[in-house]
């Protein structure tokens, strides 16, 4: 069997960390005797420079013929002066999500043993560890709801956005959260603002209905403002957090920051056919791009998730995850994970990739 | 000159902490020879029990004849089964904000010297302290935008909310943020999601325009997801945070939790005539209500803010703030501010109130 991966490395550190992910994928291909074909396409700022827009037709077509998208990161100061619609992040990520109906975004955030000191939380809180999975609805809500625009003149000119959710949109993402919880600690925390939003009231109703089919999973509801707070005091009390598009944007970033090691986190965006986009949770980090010091682990783990979810190659995925765990426990770390005094021992982007590929 | 205050103690710990605020206000009246009249009205769950709705006409009329509202807190498990619209929080706070056009919400969050250990942040971060002022728009955005509701049938049934902002709504709240920054560290961080929301794009435009009138104040823009993260890593880099209604709900709660001492924080909601509602930032805390252990400081400081902003009694306000600072630095603390091993020294709600009234 042969597989097709569309590789969209993008901007900033994207190309550097992607090179290491490719190296690790090659090692996996060899070990498991797989035939994977890669097609590279421009996206984001690189695509603006080469094609005049952040998501060119050729990139979109290329993704359509692939089994999955391995995405790097997009954006940087060079393109920040552009109108919001044309900027790399909004102009590439949102249309990709919409076009492939990638309604389900999954972002795990776990505090790795030995890396507790990286968390910005007080030591007695981080010492208890945490392992939260954010399941975020990604193609609905206020991101895509119509109407969206402006009207009126002068000081009365107003802008408007529409938050909109149907029962079926809520149901399909809620199901995924409950299924995920069954394979974990069996608890779903649904995040909403049902004391203010009509969408959240419907959200609660449908989530309750879905919960009835999962009697082994505990369900709790929490307001977004309170969720933001409780994550700071007791992150270990949360297992799966089920969120609408906007609230998931906030919660997934908060939990990522709570680990303090964003360079280790990846994110999966899936549609109902198992087609998906796999990307590191951190951004394009233009401040450290080109220096060979970026952490490639998140990109490498994105590749593992791609093998698991879109190509159904569980063993190959695990081989990568085991190799990454080995690198980390062997003390193979990039600079940002080390205290200033130990930065002399930091590994480069390439050294990390080589070591992990070797371990595979 | 004589003043009228509408006192809405509400539910949970509301009445207990309000009693101490009244005690302190009496001491201030005596010291400064003021004549303040108080009228008490039911609100929230108490009003549901006595009048069948969380904001009875008599309460609203009473507030209309007053110079300001001193608010306790509303809500509790007893009323949680009610439909969202009729619940104490939504049914009382939102109509009060709307009716009096309290468009400006100000929530300070400061890490008190000596209470750094209360913060959930890592000690090297909290050791640097922080002092953030959240200026939140309170009568616009997705809270009040029309249309809001439901339509359709079966699985296609959908709910919708509208986020809506006009130039003038943005301008008036932005001005307040810049004015506040002038009296502080001269920096405004405007929180938005301009990479997704049309409202945020307009928000940025108007905030930039307002900034031009305040050349001495630095302006930066940050996305809500990134703001949630950066507050965890470097809260000390923020001075005034300017937020729309929904984002301000999230940010003000996050910064309150970052202090770890919610019982010390109060919140001001003002209209353009200086009329305002003053309340503690924490909730009704039904779990500790009636035990005489709740911290009355936030309610007492709310009274100080009322004297300052609505009654223009600066000296009286300061007298209260000085007395509170003295109590805290004298080690006069309620249980939740003490480590478990020192709870034996905890002061009761009443002891705190007596001590502060005495100090006035
Ligand atoms: C770039 C932006 C549009 C995007 C979002 O808000 O979804 C990003 O923050 C993310 O979470 O992937
Ligand atoms: C009770 C609720 C409607 C309210 C809000 O969201 O504004 C509360 O969270 C607050 O911040 O005062």
Automatic annotation (TrEMBL), chains A, B:
Binding site for Mg(2+): 225, 249, 253
Organism of provenance: Shewanella algidipiscicola
Protein name: 3-isopropylmalate dehydrogenase
Record keywords: Amino-acid biosynthesis, Branched-chain amino acid biosynthesis, Cytoplasm, Leucine biosynthesis, Magnesium, Manganese, Metal-binding, NAD, Oxidoreductase
Functional summary from the UniProt entry: Catalyzes the oxidation of 3-carboxy-2-hydroxy-4-methylpentanoate (3-isopropylmalate) to 3-carboxy-4-methyl-2-oxopentanoate. The product decarboxylates to 4-methyl-2 oxopentanoate.
Residues reported to bind NAD(+): 76-89, 283-295
Keyword check for Transcription: no
Residue positions binding substrate: 97, 107, 136, 225
Keyword Ribosomal protein attributed: no
Site (Important for catalysis): 143, 193
Known pathway: Amino-acid biosynthesis; L-leucine biosynthesis; L-leucine from 3-methyl-2-oxobutanoate: step 3/4
Subcellular location: Cytoplasm
Catalytic activity as recorded in UniProt: (2R,3S)-3-isopropylmalate + NAD(+) = 4-methyl-2-oxopentanoate + CO2 + NADH
